From TrEMBL:
Residues 135-202 form the HECT domain. The keyword Repeat does not apply. This is HECT domain-containing protein. The active site is at residue 170. Keywords: Transferase, Ubl conjugation pathway. One of its GO terms (molecular function) is ubiquitin-protein transferase activity.
């Protein structure tokens, strides 16, 4: 017991810093001191050092001060929250790859692009077993748009060799079939997406 008290006094500054310095009455108190010190030594740095580094990073250009003063303004940027997909958000996500202006292919592609927007609106509104999440999953392998940008940028391309849509989830690309009417297009899209193995037809 004398040796324990002597060691505790010798290292009192360190134990006080760790918050585990105590009056030792029994040998059993040694376990409490050792447990407290080990917890402080191994756990405390893991919690505080990254926190301080993050705070120091935010202090660059006085950003941390602005964050403290206006937390509600910065909430959407600091805390991700998945938003419900809309026809407009899915449409704006995909960049169409169109043929040169004036070509016969361009005319057909623009017509099918109109079908695509009508299809997204119909899927969102009619609830026929197909959802915008299904379309996003088919094209990208994701059910929601992530907080970071999708890389590569999702694209729409056009094809005549198949009447069903095809997808490449590695390239975030949907190949839309060029078909003569919206009704045929809608039927082909529903069938192709619902029956695609895995993330989509490749």
């Amino acid at each position: 017991m004398e040796e324990l008290v002597e060691l505790a006094d010798k290292h009192s500054s360190m134990l006080q810093t760790a918050g585990c310095y105590r009056c030792l009455r029994t040998l059993g108190d040694k376990e409490k001191v050792v447990d407290g010190y080990i917890q402080w030594y191994f756990t405390y740095p893991l919690i505080t050092q990254p926190g301080y580094r993050f705070k120091d990073g935010l202090a660059t250009l006085n950003f941390f001060n602005a964050l403290e003063q206006h937390p509600s303004i910065f909430l959407p940027y600091m805390c991700y929250r998945a938003e419900d997909l809309t026809a407009e958000s899915v449409e704006s996500l995909f960049r169409p790859q169109l043929s040169p202006t004036g070509s016969s292919n361009r005319h057909e592609e623009e017509r099918v692009l109109g079908y695509w927007l009508d299809y997204l609106i119909a899927v969102k509104e009619d609830g026929s077993g197909m959802s915008l999440e299904d379309i996003l999953m088919f094209a990208t392998g994701l059910k929601e748009i992530p907080a970071a940008k999708l890389i590569p940028q999702p694209q729409l391309t056009f094809q005549k060799h198949s009447r069903f849509p095809e997808a490449n989830v590695c390239a975030n690309t949907i190949k839309l079939p060029i078909l003569p009417s919206y009704e045929i297009f809608e039927e082909a899209m529903n069938y192709g997406i619902k029956n695609a193995p895995g993330f989509g037809l490749h």
